Amino acid sequence: MRSGALIAKKKHESEQEIYLRLLEHVAVDCEISQARFAEQVGIAKGLANAYFNRCLSKGWIKLRQTPRKRYLYYITPVGLSEKVQLTAKFLTSSYQFYRDARADLVTTMTVARDSGHRSLGVLGAGELAEIAVITSAEARVRIAGILGEPGARKKISGKAVKSSWAEICKADAALLTSVEHARKMHGDMRRDYPHVEVYVPRQLAPLL
Asked: Which of 7, 66, 114, 164 has its Cβ near the most Cβ atoms within 10 Å?
């Protein structure tokens, strides 16, 4: 898969998940505000507003004003049907993604181990990094630390996310897991730490 296609696929999946979360929130709490929704799912308020407006235009939710000048959101029958379909799609795609990513990462980490590398530093702090940490024992390697992209989470599966490779101690090789910043993180490592072997999962190779 070409790099642009993979990134577009991940973007589409993220958008579908936000739609699903919005419909789930409105279904259980008609008083949910755009600001509170944005905070709960971790997106900007302006982006939350855009998603609410799209759901309104699609007829998935309706907006009503109360006598106290408060606004309440209600999920419509069409919205309920869409929520069911999105849930099914999300569960299917999530399972497929996890299964493929897991197999790819275990294979890549096993190749690193067979090449003499037993302690890996992870490049990227997204979903693939989390899967790498979880499956590292199966490949019989140790995850020494995680190098995060700008704005990355502070911890993944109990491991602290670092802002520079120099902070990752005892790593004798690197494992690329970033999708959006794959080329930059790979290029930076090759430039700044040319002696460090960087292992790239098959799924991410087209991004370089």
From this structure: 7
